[in-house]
Amino acid sequence: MKVSNLFRIASIALFTVAIAACSSSQSTSGNNTNSNDRSGSKERGGVDMGGALSSLSYSPNGQGFAYKSTYVNPTEFNTWATQFKPQIETALNALAPGFKLQITGHTCAIGPRDGDGAHLGNVYYSTERAKAVYQALINAGLPKDKLTYKGIANDEPLPGAAPKDQKNRRVTFKIVQG
């Protein structure tokens, strides 16, 4: 079994456990906001992060986007969305008022962070990746008012991956105030 398949299965299992835990321990105040949402262990926006949603990502073929690419292959994304849409919908339905699911685009460390003359820069490409997945999720039927997107260039590389590794070129998901 490929490592990417094992990662997908583990992500689904973790996300399912987190959603089950969320349904039994969700805060009713809606004010349980932890600014340190990177830990994956705190409740945010009414959704128990539990590490599952924060570990969910979209990375074409499990290898990451091609350099400077923002293209989301409809066939591959539809397969991914079929697999993860129920979990994302469950998380969106559990969001407290004032929170959204942020689709965050990432790049590797190749190229300039910001635009430099004719070079658009990693912030541009990461934003366009997030925007492409955002649009694909809306096209898949998810509510636009509960989604947002942001590009952060190579500010949050994958643990253990080299800064210029193609696997850093991905899209991740997290709950944010918005």
Describe the structure concisely for a colleague.
This protein is α+β, with helices and mostly antiparallel strands and about 180 residues long.
What does it look like?
This protein has 178 residues and is α+β, with helices and mostly antiparallel strands. It has one domain (3-177): OmpA-like domain (60s Ribosomal Protein L30, Chain: A), CATH 3.30.1330. It has 4 helices and 6 strands; from the N terminus they run H-E-E-H-E-H-E-H-E-E. The chain has a 4-stranded mixed beta sheet with strand order 3-6-4-5. Strands 1-2 form a two-stranded antiparallel ribbon. Helix 1 (3-25) runs parallel beside helix 3. The chain is globular and about 40 Å long. It starts with a helix and ends with a strand.
At the fold tier of CATH, the topology name is 60s Ribosomal Protein L30, Chain: A
Order of SSEs? HEEHEHEHEE
- Total count of strands: 6
The major sheet is characterized as: 4 strands, mixed
Total discrete domains = 1
CA radius of gyration: 16 Å
Overall pLDDT level: 78
Distance between the termini: 39 Å
Broad structural category: alpha+beta
Sequence stretches where pLDDT stays below 50 over 5 or more residues: 5-42
Q: What's the number of helices? A: 4
What do we call the CATH homologous superfamily? OmpA-like domain
Largest beta sheet: strand ordering: 3-6-4-5
**Strand content bin:** 5-15%
- Please estimate the helix content: 25-40%
CATH architecture designation: 2-Layer Sandwich
What is the 3D shape?
Answer: globular
> For the record, what CATH class applies?
Alpha Beta
